Amino acid sequence: MIRRFLVACLVALVAAFAALSHARADRAAVAARPKPQERSQTEPLGPAELKTAIDQLSAVDYAVRMNAARTLRRAPAAQAVPALLQAAKDHKDGYVRYAALVLLTGFNDPRTRALMLAMFGDPNDRLREVACEYAEHNPDPQLVAPLLEGLGKESGEFVRPALLRALAAHGSDPKVRAALLPEIARGQTLFRSALIEALGDYRADYAVAPLVETVQMEGPLQVDAAIALGRIGDKRALNALVAAQHAAPSETQPQIAAAICLLGVNCASHFEYIDKALRFAVKNAGFQPLLRSAAAAAGALGQSGNADAITLLLDAGIPSEDPARAPIALALGAVALRNTPAVLSVLEKRTDRDQAILLLRDAFDMLEEPYDKERFFVAVRRAYWQAAEGSEPRKVAQALITRLDF
Fold it and tell me: What is the pTM of this model?
């Protein structure tokens, strides 16, 4: 199992490098075009423009696809929402349906909920995935029944992790708890990992016992369980985490250290270790597993709001080059998606802001999480309009809008 996991990780990393290379080529092709300012919150479109923008959501050309999404985000809700609802329901292009559904979530329209409920039964995997992601971030007791029904039959590689996260977000329901706990110890590693991460994110104290059992077993899920226990914050996990720290291989030590720090124990010394491990691995080739672990550890702390951890990722990542740069960028990207305000706050204080945002752009080029990216885009645009003209928060938001092409 471990060998298969390591092979899968290697394949994923190669794919990430390939995605980053293609994305950089796409961006280079459009780099010369003028960068627009955030002009107004709504820009009315003619019927033909609206239809063209919808149809171009699946364009092969990056610039065309990006501009179509940008146009729709800036259209008045009275225009964009009906068009996106219709496209998500019955556009002939399945990818347009998917992209329209993702864009629709940024408008916070009450009609979205009914459409998402209908998508739980759609044969298109991408649409079911978005429906589950919506359910996660819009908890509703009425969604529990369809989510539990999906748990017994959903096996899509991208859909099931989203389904498990949605259920974890509804963890106050006893039926959900009873259904999720057995899933920690059974099924594919990919799905178990997604569930364990979600249990940590949603502070599932009801899952401490099985997570403690998992952290005591060497393997790919050990660090997932450790971070989850740290996020839950239950001190009953401390002895198991300390034991794991003593026994775990050096490559995973930074993440175990981050878990203990998240638990609130000796955080300063554990952060110092993570800092040294990351900087050492960046400077010395051949320590890629340690680098990935240290970057992930800093990312886990950053997601909790630790500004020093976000600063560490930026300080180590900005001057770095591939292959060291990619894992650091990915860790930073995960923080940006999970705790956008914390990243914005750190960026406001950077004198090398442009380079910091380029590192974040590398992350977004590799990350395949359109729904979470859309939530990030919404948060940044909201921050732009809420900030005073000429203020640092507005400058940061504008730089992100410009550099990340949304």
Answer: 0.89
